[in-house]
Design brief:
The chain has about 425 residues and is mainly α. It has a single domain (about 10-185, about 200-405), classed as MFS general substrate transporter like domains (Growth Hormone, Chain: A, Up-down Bundle). It has helices spanning about 1-25, 30-35, 40-70, 70-90, 95-110, 110-120, 130-145, 150-155, 160-180, 195, 200-210, 215-245, 250-275, 280-300, 310-320, 325-330, 340-365, 380-405; strands at about 375, 375-380. A two-stranded antiparallel ribbon has the order 1-2. A hairpin with a 2-residue loop joins strand 1 (about 375) and strand 2. Helix 3 packs antiparallel against helix 4, helix 12 runs antiparallel to helix 16 (about 325-330) and helix 13 packs across helix 15 (about 310-320). The radius of gyration is 20 Å and the shape is globular.
Length: about 425
């Protein structure tokens, strides 16, 4: 078991790296608005370019990892992510920045699905949800690094220098992945998958997952359920706290980090508790209720002191970690040959939600903008933020509808007969 944790460590580190790059724009929002002369909608689009390529690649990523194994994919992905960060850091036009974020997302697209596949290959099924939750916790450390620590670096050195350092880390991480990761646990298929994969195997594993209606229902739930976290933690929480609650960048980033801390703790806890009670669906409903309460307290309860805002932001992140339950349910609802493909479809829903929610909030903010500016960046009123954040309730309602139609798996691992035929 010790070796399993060692093999998983670089994968978790790459997930940390991917999350750092996902949340980084939130503390650079004003700088990027000034640098590229954009408003909320275009800033949301710039941040969301990460999600565009990430979402577009998810199904392919799942099929690739099922057939070629995580080691080569992780190494290539770390290099691609670092190259994208380098391009973004050097951008002197908005389109060049778009290209950089697009490449960052393309590399990061491999992080979670490959980690899930590695967990499935190295850990027993009864540990899956717990280990996946712990991996998420590591990712949240990266997300936290993209908040207060990055905010301090940006304040001291501007936004480009920290991004150059981030790009260099990607090259180092690629080497670590190649040296440490192995595709299979001893005795569980040590043959390199790349040597045995057949062209038709790609479509076969994808077909198994895609023909299962539960895969798509779980993807809808997971994507809608994580939308508030992606919209806030990845971009709009820091501008909201700075402009509505008059916090400086460091304090706003520190408060927003409570979301990251919440997800870091919530992932292992909800995964463990779900495994403990042997049920998945009750945890889905609990996650939605908790996020609804957090958003309401953070945005719509008047007079909440700024020092207490960490509480609702923590709740949003803690219950957003219900995403772990979605991935565990998808794995248990599909043939074991299609674990990667099913995870890829579900993660397409997640990243598609991120691609939609950030520019959508930005567009709603622009629509309610009263013309206020500060040093070339737009300022939005509390009414504008409250109007824009109503969209988060809409996402949670969609997740609730999807959760009703999810079939309870009772945390069991079952091999679905081939071909899958669900009524």
């Amino acid at each position: 078991m010790t070796r399993a944790w060692i093999v998983l460590a670089p994968a978790a580190l790459f997930y940390l790296y991917a999350f750092f790059n996902r949340t980084a724009p939130s503390v650079m929002a004003g700088d990027l608005m000034r640098e590229f002369a954009v408003g909320g909608a275009l800033l949301g689009n710039l941040s969301a370019f990460y999600f565009y390529s990430y979402a577009a690649l998810q199904i392919a990523v799942g099929v690739l990892v099922d057939n070629f194994g995580p080691r080569r994919i992780f190494t290539f992905a770390a290099l691609a992510t670092g190259a994208g960060v380098l391009l973004f850091a050097a951008a002197d036009t908005l389109h060049m920045a778009y290209a950089g974020r697009l490449l960052v997302g393309a590399g990061a697209a491999f992080s979670w699905v490959c980690a899930v596949a590695l967990i499935a290959r190295w850990f027993p099924p009864r540990r899956f949800a717990l280990v996946a939750g712990l991996t998420t916790m590591v990712g949240m450390i990266g997300a936290a690094g993209g908040q207060a620590p990055l905010a301090a670096a940006v304040e001291a050195h501007g936004w480009r220098a920290p991004m150059l350092a981030t790009a260099a880390f990607g090259a180092v991480l690629a080497l670590i992945c190649w040296l440490v990761i192995r595709d299979h646990a001893p005795g569980r298929g040590d043959t390199d998958a790349a040597d045995v994969a057949e062209p038709r195997a790609f479509l076969h594993s994808l077909g198994l997952a895609a023909r299962n209606r539960q895969t798509w229902i779980i993807a809808a739930f997971t994507g809608a359920q994580i939308s508030p976290f992606l919209g806030l933690a990845s971009l709009w929480s820091v501008p909201y706290l700075m402009q509505v609650h008059a916090l400086d960048r460091a304090h706003a980033a520190a408060t927003a980090t409570a979301m990251i801390a919440g997800m870091a703790l919530g992932g292992p806890f909800l995964g463990w508790f779900s495994d403990r009670i042997g049920r998945r669906k009750p945890m889905m409903f609990l996650a939605l209720a908790g996020q609804t309460m957090g958003i309401t307290l953070a945005v719509y309860v008047p007079g909440l002191p700024p020092e207490l805002l960490v509480v609702p932001f923590f709740l949003i992140g803690f219950f957003a970690s219900g995403i772990i339950i979605g991935f565990a349910t998808a794995r248990e609802s599909n043939n074991t040959l299609a674990t990667g493909a099913a995870s890829g479809i579900v993660n397409t829903g997640v990243m598609g939600a991120g691609a939609a929610v950030q520019p959508a909030i930005g567009a709603l903010l622009d629509g309610a903008w009263d013309g206020a500016m500060s040093d070339g960046a737009r300022l939005y009123s509390i009414e504008a933020f409250q109007t824009a954040f109503l969209s988060l309730y809409g996402a949670l309602f969609l997740a609730l509808v999807a959760a009703v139609f999810v079939r309870e798996t009772y945390c069991g691992v079952r091999v679905v007969p081939e071909p899958e035929r669900h009524a």
